[in-house]
């Protein structure tokens, strides 16, 4: 929808004249003999009140959406207000049009304004918090705490904190955005990565007691191979055997450790299963006894 074009005879009227003329045109539209005449009079009212739609749209200027888009949505709300207004209900047009236009803008933000869309419950609570924050700030003389907002709205503090944290969903920061550091690194450069040493530490912890059970020569071979980084040929010279024998010894030792480690893991699961079963049986017997 494009910006409605103001006619020359209405663009310079003051607010009093505009309200009076709006009221008269709407009454004439309600009494119009045909749809064409009614639509023409309603279009006059729309052009006459574009300033109202623009002033409401400006209240949302700090949102992430383009202001021109918000203004277009406000125009849609104005058109809907004019089309639906009934002069015989005793309500003045401005009082009817303002919530209609505001509701249209809020629906736009609800449906289109979230780059990352949180649950509807959190969206609704976020809007309530925005209104409550303005009210409490005037009452308290400072920004309210999450606890005060929760008490005012009758909500859980955890839900209020979740709704407050979703403010960034309107305009989430890209991980490629530069940070405020001297190096000018991006956020992606500061993100952590999987540390392979975790798996290494876990394996070392599990293998330590098994390695202590090995014969001294087997311990010596593992120590020279994996802690000193010796080659099989260097170990063979140290022990007075051939390189082929060292290869077979390493294969045997590693195979033994792998088997022992697998049996221990299977045993832990077996024991855990037995414990769970034994813990559930007495309760089952008690239920049957009851």
Automatic annotation (TrEMBL):
Chain spans, region Disordered: 1-20, 265-290
GO biological process, alphabetically ordered: DNA-templated transcription initiation
Residue stretches spanning the membrane: none
Domain RNA polymerase sigma-70 region: 52-115, 127-195, 213-258
Skewed-composition ranges (Basic and acidic residues): 11-20, 267-277
Statement: the UniProt record of this protein carries the keyword DNA-binding: yes
Keywords assigned by UniProt, alphabetized: DNA-binding, Sigma factor, Transcription, Transcription regulation
Domain of life: Bacteria
GO-annotated molecular function: DNA binding; sigma factor activity
Matches recorded under Pfam families: Sigma70_r2, Sigma70_r3, Sigma70_r4
Protein name: SigB/SigF/SigG family RNA polymerase sigma factor
Originating organism: Phytoactinopolyspora halotolerans
